[in-house]
Amino acid sequence: MSKNIVLFGETGAGKSSVVNLMAGRDRAKTSPDMERCTLQWQEHPVAFDGCVYNVFDTVGLEEPQLGMKDYLDIIVNAHNLITKLHQEGGIDLLLFCVRAGRVTATLQTNYRLFYEWLCEKKVPIVLVLTGLEREQNSMDDWWTRNKQIFARYEIRVAGHACITAANHLDGRPKQLYEDSRRLVRDLVRTHTQGEGGTWDGGEGSLTRFLRKLRELLQGKPRRKDVVGVLTKRCHIPLEAAKQLAGSIRSDLAA
């Protein structure tokens, strides 16, 4: 039995380290430079409890660090990955990796890209919060203090795990690392065994948006109207929205 998991988040959130934590050995390269040099996803089979979890590590959006071309490429790359998985058995879980710290609007954009736009809110999504080895008591205390911030950004998840993905540490952090493996595995196991089953695809919010424009508008919609929807509803940066709007108008006219 196998399950498909899409792992996403900003560079530096610890996605590759989370893969290695789950696997119990080094599966993914953890160099930040390696993460930045490719926008293509990486597939890592991880096995535990008699099940193989195919973890697809992909790049999230990071503004303003990204150049415009990279920003657009990441959206296309994410769409291609979701489409590929639709054709190969579907998606069982979205694993949103966030480094504990300041919660920003960029997190909301990543959440909406994968959960709302691409998976139509039909795939369970869970949070893995990394970098918590310095919490004085329980690592989960961080979530207790900060969960309302996620609610403010309308980031709603089915579950979470507060962990450390930092290996090769001595003392208390070493035990926390082992505890973190159990927490992440439990999180994955719990949310891939639900009654809903694997989501095997849909047309996606952006595709529906294009289709509705075709139905409702005659000729080419005004560019500024398309830009307005992309920036206000989808929270896409203005310059990226302008470029996407040009492509959308061309598609609608085809």
Short description:
By secondary structure, this protein is of the alpha/beta class.
Map the helices and strands.
Blueprint (H helix, E strand, L loop, with lengths): L1 E7 L6 H9 L8 H6 L4 E7 L2 E7 L10 H20 L5 E7 L5 H14 L6 E6 L10 H12 L6 E4 L9 H20 L13 H12 L6 H10 L5 H16 L1
Parallel strand pairs: 1-3, 1-4, 4-5, 5-6
Antiparallel strand pairs: 2-3
Helix pairs in contact: 8-9
Describe the protein in words.
With 254 residues, the protein is an alpha/beta fold. The protein has 9 helices and 6 strands. It has helices at residues 15-23, 32-37, 68-87, 105-118, 141-152, 172-191, 205-216, 223-232, 238-253; strands at residues 2-8, 42-48, 51-57, 93-99, 125-130, 159-162. A 6-stranded mixed sheet has the order 2-3-1-4-5-6, sandwiched between helices. The protein is globular, with a radius of gyration of 19 Å.
The strands making up the biggest β-sheet line up spatially as: 2-3-1-4-5-6
Mean pLDDT equals 79
Q: Distance N terminus to C terminus?
A: 43 Å
The count of helical stretches stands at: 9
Number of strands: 6
Helix content estimate: 40-55%
| Stretches with pLDDT under 50, minimum 5 residues | none
**3D shape:** globular
What about the largest sheet? 6 strands, mixed
N-to-C series of helices and strands: EHHEEHEHEHEHHHH
What Rg, in angstroms, do the CA atoms define? 19 Å
% residues in beta strands? 5-15%
Classification by helices and strands: alpha/beta
Keywords for this entry:
254 residues; alpha/beta; 9 helices
